[in-house]
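Researcher: Quick one. two chains, 591 residues in total.
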Amino acid sequence: MAMALANNGVNVQALLDAREALKGAPGATAFTWRATCKWQNGTYSKTNVKGFFGLGQEQSHKTETSFEADHPEIFAAEDRGITPIEYVLVGLASCLTAGIAAVAQNRGVQLNSVESQLEGKMDIRGILGMDSDVRNGYDDIKVTFKIDADAPRKEIEAIVAQSQKRSAVYDIISNPVNVTVEVA
Amino acid sequence: MIGAGHAGLAASRVLGDRSIDHVVLERGEVANSWRHERWNSLRLLTPNWQSRLPGHAYGGPDPDGYMTAGEVAGFITNYAALSNAPVRTGTAVTSLTRDGDGYRLLTSGGEIDARTVVIASGACNLPHVPALRAALPASIAQFTTFDYRKPDDLPDGGVMVVGPSATGLQLAAEIHHSGRPVTISVGEHVRLPRVYRGRDVLWWMDRSGVWNQRYDEIDDLTRARRLPSPQLVGTPERTTLDLNALGSMGVQIVGRLSTVRDGRALLSGSLRNMFALADLKMERLLDTFDEWAAAHPREADGPAPERFEPTRVPQSSPLQLDLRDGRIRSVVWATGYRPDYRWLDVPVLDEKGHLRHDGGVVDSPGLYALGLPVLRRRKSTFIHGIEDDARDVIDHLAGYLAAAQRA
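Model:
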């Protein structure tokens, strides 16, 4: 019964249908996500995102989005945008949240509200080159969800666990990925 | 029939009862894998009272005990003799091809033509080892579950066991007891207590009906068929061997081995979620048992429901291990098994190398399979699960033969 009533605004049936359809089309599952970045001044840059590749052809977002990044004033910068490492939290939060909505929909659980707080801990001795034993990036990330849903706590915990299992951003944060940076 | 393990012999018995002429081809001896391809301390995960095959059951003095691999081999060999099964030992199938309405088998003992063939050669013929094994430094000695027999086969020094299945946990524990420092790398796993409410947890799987769940009623069958074996060990003390038990012994628990780069093992930071998934799934299963118990108070007359401590997250868990600093000298891959179909020349394998079949009815007329995980039911994976599967599959096979005769 819950299945018919829950509406989190995720078209799970379309996703399940796509999974079936893609079984017979191995090439179509290869996606490339893109961004272009342009230095402005100091530590300030603008990154634009619009096109991507998937389902065998060029795709495009409805509109182009621009993201401004900078460093805060305590780093002697002008703080014209959030720091790049905060964008990582943006990516993780939105990825897990989307996953929770989709998994809850698939399990027939109505969500009333989903809020989360993220904390990434980092020792800046790494990026300042003060101590080569300290890594540059986060050494600990904590996400705390506050979820109001028509389900018992255990079921909500299971939805959150499953969303981590299926999250692309959680995966690339918790597992290594090959990175190539070159000069064209 | 290809294979004289529990599956092939059970099906042979069912065929014999229906007077269907057949032969059981066995590459080695009866129960070959149990005799030659497992480690010394292996015992069944299922208690003796569950060791039953069509027309045969455990009759010994210890129904709650767990057979050693040697005892399993004896049990199966005894069954072959009792059933008078037409087994040809030392007869390896080197090729199976479609030939007209039937099949042609090339074997080390000559050619055989058959109208139908049942593949019962097992799901665990070869170790499944991830490709990143090639990236390990040459100084690390590598073992699979086929090379490993006992802890003293390993060099002295630290050991990394990869994989949190029943196999991985059992080997981690016995290697730790040999005095070698052990690190176990943990991805997705299935956690179970050995005893729940005073009874073997597999008693609950059996009685509550979980094990009888049919393959066509399971939401994600692909996942169910790929699940690692539950974290269980069969010991006379009926101890629970989970990650908390390993942690208490002093085994280091680390995340899934993601890759090896510059001689360093890079480990996943997903350990907490791996624990959460396994703990939640175990609790859901125990809820199912409790619901069944509440509805069947006369059968479930033991102690009240209980819950277990969540898997403890290690204080600190490294994300990298230097494989060149000498602290880890060997790696044991407990990363699963796969079937060996190199002899199979009928196009019935999917892109992952698994048989395409619907409950044991393979995607080629007259070809069948038995003895694979969750073939027709959750219990198919276990010895006692073969009886219902064998009857169903042989029913289909007999119908196929009868239809062919009418045509």
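The domain at 128-333 of chain B is CATH 3.50.50.60 (FAD/NAD(P)-binding domain).
Researcher: Thanks, that's what I needed.
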